[in-house]
Amino acid sequence: MLDTLRLTNRRFHGGIHPPENKLQSSLEPLRELPLPNEVVLPLGQHQGQLAKPLVEIGEKVKTGQLLASTTVATGACVHASITGRITAIEDRPLPQVSGLSLPAIVIQREGEEESFTYPRYDNWQETPNEQLLERIQTSGLVGLGGAVFPTRTKLAGALEKGIETLIINAAECEPYITADDCLMQTRPAALLEGIGLLIKLLQPREVLLGIEDNKPQALESLQKALPGSGLEEQLQICVLPTLYPSGGEKQLIQLLTGKEVPSGGLPLDLGILCHNVGTLAALADAVIRGRPLIERIVTITGQAVSQPGNYLVRLGTAIETLLQAAGWNQDKHQRLILGGPMMGFTLPSAQVPVTKAANCLLLPTEEELPLPGPEQPCIRCGRCEEACPAQLLPQQLYFYAAHQVFDQAEEHQLFDCIECGACAWVCPSEIPLVQYYRYAKGEVRQLRADAEKAEQARLRFEARQERFEREQAEKEAKRQARAQAAAKLAAAQKAKQEAKTQQEPQTQSEQASSEPDVQAALTKKLKQLKTAKAASSVAVKKAEKGLANLKAAADTTPEQLSEQEAKLAKAKEQLQKAEQQLAEAEAGNTPAAAQPAPEVKPSTGNPEDPAKKLKQLKTAKAATAVAVKKAQKTLDNLKAAADSTPEQIAEQEDKLAKAQQQLQKTEQQLAEAEASGQPAPTAAPGQPTATPEDPAKKLKQLKTAKAATAVAVKKAEKALSNLQAAKDATPEQIAEQEEKLAKAREQLTRAETRLAQAEEE
Amino acid sequence: MAWIQLSSPHSHNRVTTDQVMRQVVIATLPGIATLTWFFGPGILVNLILTISSCLLAEALVLKLRNRPLTVLKDNSALVTGILIGCCLPASTPWWIPVLGGSFALLVGKQLFGGLGQNPFNPAMAAYAFLLISFPVQISIWPAPATPLSDTSWLNSLAGSDALTGATALDAWRNKGLLMAEEFWQADGYLSSQMVTAWASVASAWLVGGLYLIWQRIINWQLPLTFLATLFIAGSFVWGFNPSHQIPPWLHLAASSAVFAAFFILTDPVSGATSLKGKVFFAIGCGLLVISIRTWGSYPDGVAFSVLLMNFAAPALDYYTRPRVYGQKQARKGLASKEKS
Fold first, then answer.
1. Which residues of chain A neighbour B278 with C-beta distances below 8 Å?
2. Is the separation of the CB atoms in A180 and A172 below 8 Å?
3. Residue B231 burial (C-beta neighbours within 10 Å; 0-12, 13-18, 19+)
4. Domains of chain A: which residue ranges?
5. Chain A stretch 241-270, residues whose beta carbon is closer than 8 A to a beta carbon of chain B
6. Which residue among A356, A375, A697, B162 sits deepest, i.e. has the most Cβ atoms within 10 Å of its Cβ?
7. Which chain A residues contact residue B117 at CB under 8 A?
C-alpha cells in the first residue's frame, strides 16, 4: 500500500495552523436525516444562469425527477429530492449572507417514496464521452467543494483543452469540516469509480489525490478500496502535512505539482484539472447508478449542537430542521456559519434550504470562537505577510484598502487574494483584513464597471456628435447643391430665352441647307420619276388595250391600226425611258435626279406595260431582299468574327440598314404598283403630270421613312451600347457613334414632324 | 431569532498586540538586569522615569485626541519607555530620561497619529534628540563597579560628579594616535571591567533576542543580517588599517549593536515590510553604523543609522515586494499612472 503514498516536500508560502476541531464530527458515524416534510429547491444553487422550471404547481413528482433544466452551458439542472407534490414555485431566500431571494420549487412530501429511475451506464467504459457529459449535465452535477461550478462545463472545457494532470482534492484543510473525510470513510468505492470515470473522460497522464495527514481513517479506507478498483497503477495518493489552506485549489496544485496557476488564469492553463472528492462520488452515482444529485453530506458541528457529526441530507431540507436533528441548543448559539470558521459565512436566518454548496454548518459558542475584539492599529508586524499563501503583502493591501488607494491596492495584486483568512487569523491587532479586501475588490469592480460605463457613454456621445456633424454637413451640402441647381436653372432659362430670340432663324436656315434635305429632294424626284414611270406604264397598257380593241373591231382601218401600233411603241419607249431613268435615279441617286421631271412629261402620252413594271419591281425586290440577307449574313459573320473592328461592324450595320431600307422601298413600290395597276387605266392620259404626288401615297412614304429612320436610330443605339460595353472601344469611337446616333435621332424627329405635317395636310 | 452577522474568518489565533509587546518587555529583562548589575540601580531609575514619562505623555495625547485611555494597555508606550531607558547612561541627570520619554511619545509617535503611524523609531528619535542636544550627559557612563555597594548613582541623581568611565567606542575615538596594541595596554583609556561589562550586556541582549525569535515575535534574518553586516564591513575597514580601526569584534560587543539588532531594527512599524525589505534595511543600517563609527564625528551611530534607514523604508517597500503566487516575477515600484 505504501507505494501509493507520496509524501510531498513541496511547500506553499505561509499557511497557518488553526485548531482543527475535526474530531467532534469525524468520530461520529454518518447519520441519515429523516425525510423532510418539505423541501425548497432553489433554481440557482450553482454558478451561472438559473434553471428553468419544467413542472407546474400541483404536479406530483418522484424523487430524482428533473424539475428544472438549463439550455445554456453555465447552468445546472435541479431534481426533486423527495416524492410529493409541488406546492409553490416562488422566490425563497437562499443561504447567503445577503439573504437574497431567488425562484425555488417547493415540494410537499406526499405518499410513499418513489424513485425516478434513469438508465444506468453499466458499461461506461465504452460509452461515448458526449453521452457521459449529457448524463452529467442532466444529473445536475456541480462542484461540491464550495464553488458549485457546473461540472459538465468544467469537464467540457478540460476535454476541449486536454489535461495532463488530474488532481483530486481531498485535503479538506478548513477546520471543523469533515464531510469529505466522512465520504472517504463511508464510500471510498464511489469515489474511486468517479476517479475512474474522469480518467476515462479526460485521459490524464497522472492522477494525484492530495489528502492532509489529519485524516488517517479516510486514508486507510481509500487504501483498502484501491486494490481491484483498476486505479492502482494510475492513482497516486499524496499525503500532505496539515497546513491551512492546503486545500485551496492553487495551493494544492503547488503542493502536488510545484506549478503555480498564472495570476488571473485557470489550472486548465497548466493542463491541470482539480475536482473535489464529493463531486467525484456524485459523478459516479449519476453515471453508473443513474442517481442525480439530490443529497449530500453536511457536517454539523460546534459546541452549540449536542449531536455534532455528518448527516446525509436531502437537498432543499431547511437548515433549521437539520439543526433540530443535531440537537441545537438554542441558548448557546450566537452564530450560524455556513462553511468553516476560516472562509464560511454567517447566515441571517435558519429558514433557508440546504443547497448543493452546503458542506458544513458551524454553530460555535462564544467561548469556542470568541467574537473579535476592537480593531487596533496595524503595527506592520508582518505576521500576515508570513501567513499569506499567495505571498501578498497583506499589511500594504490593508493600508491601501483602508485609505481607498485602490490603484495601489491593485498594483499590489489585490485580486490574487484568495480570501483564505490566514492574514486576519494571525493579525495581533484583530483587523478584519479579509473584509477590507472584499470591500476593496468590490470598490475596484465598481470603479471598473463605472469606468467601462463612462467609456461607453463617451463613445456613444462621440458617435452621436459625429453623426450630428455629419448630418449637419450633409444638410449643408444639400442646401448648397440646391442653391447651385436653382442658380444654374435660372441661368439656363435665361440663356434659353436669349438663344430662342437669337438663334431661331439661324437654325431654320441651317435646316434648309442641311444634307438630309438634299436627300429628301432626291427622293422626291425619285418619287416623281416613279410616278412618271407608273403613268407611262399605264399609258402603254392603254395603248395596248386600244390596239387590241382596234384589232378586234371589224371596221378598223389599217391606218388606224398602224397608228395605234405606233402609239403603243411610243408609249413602250416612254415607259422604258422612264424605267431607265428611275433605275438610273435609284442607282445613281444624284445624277439621275437632276433631270427626271422633264423626261416624265412625255410619258403622259406613252403608257407603259404595268405587268412588266410589276415584274421588274418584284425582281428588284427579290434582289434587294437577297442584298439584305447578304448584308445580314456578313454582319453576323462580322459579329461572330473575333477580329472584326467595331467600325467594320458599324459599317456593315449601316449597309444592312440601307439594304433593308431599299427592300422596304421596293416592297412599297411593288405594293404601290400592284395597287395602282387597277386605278391607273381610269386616270386620264393627260392628267398624271399634274398630280405627281398623291397625299396618301406621300403619307405612306413618310411613314416608311419614319420607320426606316427609327430602325436606323435603334441600330445606332445598339452599336453605341456595344461600343460602350466593349472594353477596347476608344473614346473617339464612342463619340463618333454618339454623333451618328444623334444624327439618326434628328432624322427620326424630322421624319416624324414631316409625317405629322403631312397627316395634318 | 437574530443571528450574529460577521465576516470571515471567524477564528483567530488570539495573539494580540499587547501580548506581542509583553513578550518584548520580557525579552528586555536579562539586558536590564545585566545593565543594573554592572552600572547600578541608576538604570532602573532611568527606566522608571522613561516609562512613566512615556505613559504620561501618551495619556495626555489620548486625552487631547479624545481617545480612550485603554489604548495604553497595548503596552507599546511601555516598550518605548524601556527601550529609551536602556540606552541612557546610569549616571544621567533625571530630566534626561523624562525629556527623552516625552519626546519619544509626543514627537516620535503621537505627532504622527499614534501606534502604527510613526515613520521613525520613537526610541531612536528620542535618543538622537538627546545625543544632539545633550551630548555630554548622554555619553558619560559610570565606571562599572561592584554595583550594589556603589552609591554613586545617588550622587548622579543629585547632579554631583561621580566616578565615570568611557564606553569602549568613546575611548577608542579618544585614543588619538595610539596604535591598537598601545591602546589596549595603556591605562586610563579603557578599563577591562568596562569591556567585560559591555560584552556581558551584549550577551544579555542576545539572550533576550533569541527569546523573541523563539516566541516568533521577530524573525532571525533581520538581526543576523545586521550583525553580519557589522562584522563583515567592520572587518573590511579594519583590514585596511588594523592599528587604528576598531576591531570587528568590538563593533559587535560595544554597547549598542546587539541591543539594536534585536530590539530596535526589528520595530515593524518604522521598518520595511517584506522579508527582503527587512534584510536590505538591516544591511543599510549595518553599513551606516560602520561608516559613522569609522568616519563620523560620533563614536556610535546606531540611532542615526536606524533613523536614516527609516527614511528609506517606504522606498525599500516598493522595490522589495515578494513575487506573488502565479506571477512570473515580483512587481516593483509604484503603480504606473496609465494602469490606473
1. 382
2. yes
3. middle
4. 2-293, 384-444, 518-693
5. 250, 254, 260-265
6. A356
7. 377
Q: Which of B7, B10, B22, B328 to mutate to test the interface with A (most CBs of A within 10 A)?
A: B10
E strand residue ranges, B30-154: 141-142
**Crossing angle of helices A695-725 and A515-552, rounded to 10°:** 140
Asked whether residue B326 is assigned to any structural domain, the reply reads no
Range of the domain at B66: 16-165
Structural domain A2-293, CATH architecture: 3-Layer(aba) Sandwich (3.40)
For residues A407 and A431, what is the distance between their CA atoms, to the nearest angstrom?
A: 22
Question: What is the nearest CA distance from B124 to chain A, expressed in angstroms?
Answer: 17
Are B178 and B294 members of one domain?
A: yes
Q: Give the separation between CA B217 and CA B26, rounded to whole angstroms.
A: 12
Distance CA A438, CA A451 (A): 19
Nearest to A434 among B8, B15, B115 (CB): B8
**Residues B195, B73 share a domain:** no
CA distance A194 to A191: 5
Which residues of A are less than 8 Å from B269 in CB distance?
379-380
Vertex A695 angle, CA A693 and A697, to 5°: 75
Mean pLDDT by 10 residues, chain A (761 residues): 60 89 87 90 82 88 88 81 91 84 90 84 82 86 85 87 91 91 92 90 90 90 86 86 90 90 88 92 89 92 89 92 86 80 89 90 87 86 89 90 89 89 90 92 90 92 92 93 91 84 56 57 76 80 77 69 77 78 68 44 50 76 79 74 68 77 78 62 44 67 83 81 72 78 83 78 64
Between CA A66 and CA A59 the distance in angstroms is: 12
Q: Do residues A516 and A742 touch, judged by C-beta distance below 8 A?
A: no
Closest CA in chain B for residue A348: B3
Task: Please say whether the beta carbons of A367 and A303 come within 8 A.
Answer: yes
Contacts of A633 (CB under 8 A, 6+ apart): none
| Chain B hits for A341, Cβ within 8 Å | 8-11
CA of A41 vs chain B CAs: smallest distance (Å) = 23
The beta-carbon neighbor of B269 closest among A345, A379, A425 is A379
Element of type H or E holding B214:
helix B192-214
Q: Please check whether residues B143 and B188 belong to one and the same domain.
A: no
Following CA atoms B279, B280, B284, B285 in sequence, which dihedral angle do they give, to the nearest 10 degrees?
-30
Chain A residue numbers touching B273 (CB-CB < 8 A) = 380, 382, 385, 393, 395-396
Tell me whether 0.85 is exceeded by the ipTM: no
> Where does residue A166 fall: left (phi above 0), alpha (psi -120 to 50 degrees), or beta otherwise?
beta
Q: Which amino acid is at A564?
A: Q
Residue A440 near chain B (CB below 8 Å): no
Phi/psi-derived region of residue B202, left when phi > 0, alpha when psi is between -120 and 50, beta in every other case: alpha
3-class DSSP assignment, residue A605 = coil
In a shared domain, residues B81 and B147: yes
Q: What are the beta bridge partners of residue A296? A: A313
Q: Do the Cβ atoms of A663 and A628 come closer than 8 Å?
A: yes
Residue pair A719/A650 in contact by the 8 Å Cβ criterion? yes
Flag whether B11 is in a domain: no
What's the Cα-to-Cα distance from B306 to each of B115, B123, B220, B229, rounded to whole Å? 18, 10, 18, 14
Q: Quick: pLDDT tens for B6-16.
A: 888 888 887 88
Is A315 in the B-facing interface, judged by CB distances under 8 Å? no
Judge contact between A578 and A528, C-beta under 8 A. no
A421 chain-B contacts, CB cut-off 8 A: 8-9, 11
Closest by CA to A107, choosing from A93, A88, A94, A121, is: A88
